[in-house]
Amino acid sequence: MSAESTVILDMAGIRRALTRIAHEVLEKNKGVDNLVLVGIRTGGVHLARELAARLEEIEGAKLPVGEVDITLYRDDIKGHSAHLPVGKTDIPFSVEGKKVVLVDDVLFTGRTIRAALDAIMDHGRPACIQLAVLVDRGHRELPIRADFVGRNVPTSLKENISVKFDANYAPAEVVLEK
Amino acid sequence: MNLLIKGGRVIDPSQGLDRVADIVVENGLVKEIGSGLAAPAGAETVDASGKYVVPGLIDMHVHLRDPGLEYKEDIVSGTRAAVAGGFTSVCCMPNTKPVIDSKAIATYITTKAKAEGFCNVFPVGAITQGMGGERLSEMGELKESGCVAVSDDGRPVKSAELMRRALQYAAGIGILVISHAEELDLVGEGTMNEGFTSTELGLKGIPRVAEDIATAREIMLAEYTGSPVHIAHVSTAGSVRIIRDAKARGVRVTCETAPHYFTLTDDAVRGYNTNAKMNPPLREADDVAAIKAGLADGTIDCIATDHAPHHIDEKDLEFNEAMNGIVGLETSLPLSLGLVADGTLTLPALVEKMACRPAAILGLDRGTLKTGSIADITVVDPGREWQVTAESLASKSKNSPWLDETMRGAAACTIVGGKVVYQGR
Amino acid sequence: MKSFKHKDIIALRDLTKEEIELLIETAEGMREINSRDIKKVPTLRGKTIINLFYESSTRTRTSFEIAGKRLSADTVNITPSSSSATKGETLSDTALNLLAMKPDIIVMRHAVSGSHYYLAGKLPNCSIINAGDGAHEHPSQGLLDMLTMKDRFGRLDGLKVAIVGDITHSRVARSNIQGLTKMGSSIYLAGPPTMMPPGVERLGNVTVCGTMKEAIQDADVVMMLRIQQERQGKTLMPNTREYSRYFGLNPDNLKLAKPDAIVMHPGPINRGVEMSSYVVDGDQSRVLKQVENGVAVRMAMLYHVAGGELE
To answer: Nearest residue on chain A to C296, judged by CA atoms?
Structure first.
């Protein structure tokens, strides 16, 4: 870890944030009916599973969780990205008519979310898509906003925010690096 | 013009000479070899100190492409390349357009060479009319018009019967038959040597036995008819062995190889390099070793280049489509000097293979520095390093596998009939 | 992280083990797209791919075309009526003309081995993918074969792969030998000696077998090559009948292979010659799976060469 890094959220903080998001999701959607979660690979997938666990604790219902890899939907394919391996998209259920909660770790320019929206749309026509993120660091380049935010963190473009996971893929801490 | 060639190491195997000496040339002839010779009146002096002075080199196998294919080379550009490479005489193969199978074409070549060429040009006539492989050409008239040998080079004489008759007929006339020894059924559609490299590159192979069988056939026919035969561009270990055995039996066979067969293997084809595509194809390391052994023990009589210029449009192609052959006149001397450097040949032995033997095989009154002989002389700078580039080559065509490589050794001065026709930097 | 740094894919000989793994893994990811209702992703939107096929091949050309379209590229098929061998336009001129249309990728099949290297030398700013060159290589076939083997066994390392048929003329065999050797498989070749090229055992982890039985004994994979009377000519074998007696795969000799062995063939199959119909349509056959994997593998190849900017 670089010398100039600050922990913004520790494990307990992340848990509290996710529990709050879970309640907000339930409140907004009036329960878990017709609700599915889709995480953006890779951080968003772990968070989506974590969020599903919170929702199960509260509501007692197990929500389906899918994973979406956005590599093939990136808008910067001319650059280095095509050299990246393509991850697996795995949405083991129909999104047709579902309320989809899309989960990612950090919301930044919005381009990843745009790609993920396209990817989900290619799998069917959901009733709606809502966005849940652990951290919103600002600097949007597209008209995208999150429905559920764990923590708003104003940053400069030079800074970097990352969500660290432990060996069991449970979110451990959110770190701001300068 | 008279000359004094001063202070060079004079190497002339024809008279067992290898010492530092001066040479006086008068009226186109060698007048005297000795130490501390004075320049005759009005003579030009060539400083040969630190250089070799040898009988003018003779390349008995080149393609000058003139007449008919002058976009590749012509007599002027070809002989310019020859003298730049240290050659004072070349024998040009008959696969021109039209073929050298008549007095008219042979005379055209000798006349143009005398008028515009830089070195002596001795045409090689065709064995068969139009190189068609069916009827013998008029070898008598070809000889009268200056041809020093006959060959259907580029195309073997497929019929054994016709080859037998050609050997008999030519022997009667006193003209040498040079055989392009290849069994075409075995060559098939091959484009490179058949071996591991062709397997890896997925190119159709030409097996070595295609050459060996044809070499053996020519030797058996020569033996049967009692006629001499010369095998062109020997490339395989098998051919060397067959020729060695035949010579031991007293068969009148002579042969040549080319510098690419003792310097390159079929590895040079990797990358589908069309400048490594020739016929016979580059072979393998054991063939290179056998060629060198054949040169060393005298099985291989001489080194010829098989100088085969092609236009870039005939080489800048997919491998299968590209034509066979490379230019060689200007790289032969440094590559052959490599045989001295690696201990294969002594310097006199090399001079023998590049000057004396070709003259003897063809019956030319050259290849010697004896007093009174024609002053065809090559002064060799063994130390000069130079880079092979398209610009550095005098030939019209640039199809060399050694492009961008550095060569060591070059002609410093080429003298034909007592006249300096080329001076190196 | 694995990365792919080549502009062109011409031969598996030119790729490292890691690059081959990356292509196979990417292809595995691509398969998900092929199972969707909407079988299309926007990845190569705005890219132009020219399929330049000097030899006819419905299967490979269609597979590349579908692969390009599923990645949203614009694909154009060009099938020159004559090759330069018949003195039409030279490959170089064809290439320069195509270049004027600004393609991003040219997928070419050509009868002359090595012609892709020649083309790549002429087109420094366009990616070249080899869809088969002479008897040299057929890298997409090699990759889809390896993917099909990996599907069955979960690995390539340590597999015994028998390849039976005309090795001399087979670009499929060469690409498999190059690729499988890098992945740690052992290759056993069988075929009439007239169809075994010299030095082939030095191409990789290759054993040349005297009989077909020896090659397929305990094999995990039995790969049969297509026999074409017109290609093998009159001198390499007496006829297909005798060929098939000694080098054809049937339910009986297939029993020599491991019980869970799979059977592969690059197609099109001459039923009753290199394989009996019982084998082609049997449980161990992966022939159709190979075709299916072909699209995913070719998507992966297109995707990785389209990366553009190279170091």
So the answer is: A86
pLDDT for res C308: 42
C58 and C166 in a single domain? The answer is: no
Chain C residues with CB inside 8 Å of B316's CB? Answer: 92
Beta-carbon separation of C43 and A73 below 8 A: yes
What is the pLDDT, as a whole number, of residue C83?
47
Most C CBs within 10 Å, among B193, B198, B199, to test the C interface: B199
Structure confidence at residue C1 (pLDDT): 55
Structural domain of residue C211, as residue ranges?
A: 139-291
Strands B419-423 and B406-416: antiparallel
Residue B187: its chain C contacts at CB < 8 A?
A: none
Task: Please say whether the beta carbons of B48 and B19 come within 8 A.
Answer: no
Q: List the chains bordering chain C where 3 or more Cβ pairs fall under 8 Å.
A: A, B
Judge contact between B203 and B191, C-beta under 8 A.
yes
Chain A closest-CA separation from residue C3 CA (Å): 5
C188-216 mean pLDDT: 96
Q: Please indicate, yes or no, if residue C207 is contained in any of the structural domains.
A: yes
User: Model ipTM?
Assistant: 0.92
Domain count, chain C: 2
Query: Which 3-state string (H, E, C) describes A91-115?
Result: CCCCCCCCEEEEEEEEECCCHHHHH
Domain boundaries, chain B: 3-52+374-423, 57-362
Tell me whether residues B202 and C113 touch, CB distance under 8 A.
yes
| B321·C199 Cβ contact <8 A | no
Residue keyed to tokens 């498999």? C176
CATH class in words for B3-52+374-423: mainly beta
What's the CATH number where A157 sits? 3.40.50.2020
For residues C172 and C279, membership in a common domain is answered with yes
C284 shares a domain with C150: yes
Per CATH, the number for B57-362 is: 3.20.20.140
The residue annotated as part of the active site, out of B12, B101, B306, B381, is B306
- Does one domain contain both C254 and C113? no
> What tokens does C302 get?
């297109």
pLDDT digits (tens, 9 = 90+) for A74-120: 877 654 444 566 777 888 899 999 999 999 999 999 999 999 999 99
Contact C307 A82 (CB under 8 A): yes
CA distance B175 to B167: 9
Known catalytic membership, residue B306: yes
